[in-house]
Amino acid sequence: MRGIKITILLLGLLGLFQPSAMAQGVKVKAVIDSTHVLIGDQFKLRLELDQPNDAQVEFPQIPDTIEGGIEVIEQSPLDTFKLDNSEQLKIIKNLTITSFDTGKQVIPAFKFKLVQNDMQQDLETLPAEFFVHSMPLDTTKGPTDIKQPYAAPVTLAEASPYILGAILILAIAFFIFYYIQRRRKNKPVFGKPAKPKEAPHVIALRELERIKEEKHWLEPGEIKMFYSDVSDTLREYIDERFHINAMEYTTDETLEAFKRQKDLLTDKSKSQLKDILSLSDLVKFAKYQPLPDDHNLTLMNAFFFVNETKLEDKKAVIKDEREGEDVEMK
Fold this sequence. Notes:
The protein is of the alpha+beta class. 44% of the residues lie in helices and 21% in strands.
């Protein structure tokens, strides 16, 4: 009878210590990264499992809210690591948690299920504690915002209507001012743009062509008019082209002005100009009667002088000189 009792006692002790034998090499724990936090702050809770390679351990299912009002914001997937020089595995799961209740908070134990040889055992972590502090308030100033309102910068799209409006107002004001000024001067509001000024040689050559077409030298009473027109045309050209006041100067004063600036004319042009102006003075003031060949030579020299001294490129000057050689008196 005594032997039967001893056998029953041994069987009971074997059943009592079997789960502990199953849990050998398996460790679980819960670790938090801060024990003092501000209300609403987020911090990490790490669940760790150390187990043999051949063990089957189930992680606990984590709800959105843990007992005690602790909220789970985010759960990471399981990370598995093989420990060096051993057949052990480490499995980690990170939780992001927060709490809006002040005071001491307790994270309850998490249960892991160990299954081996059709037998099951629960492994629990130790509870973890942390303290939630409220936001400090300055009671002397009363309630204030945590942060002052943020003033966003004004974008171009928001400012563009005001910019365009300002430009439009300035344009209208300028138009009114311009309109009043034009009306006071009895001028049209929208005047025609001034024509570009013609080059001096263009005007001179046009006048010489007119003189050539009028043929005043054919009538004895109009020879003086012919020489006056030719000399006046050249004097106006010299005034515009060389800025020498030939209309007010005598022939000698005009020639002297060119002598002082030797680089303005070639010797040939100076000789042509002297012949034209001197002969014109004799006809106008001394009643000299030139020969018919003098009329032709005077007009040809006038064309040569303008073409040789005009401000154009070299090719254009050569072309005009060739055209001038064909000038004949008819």
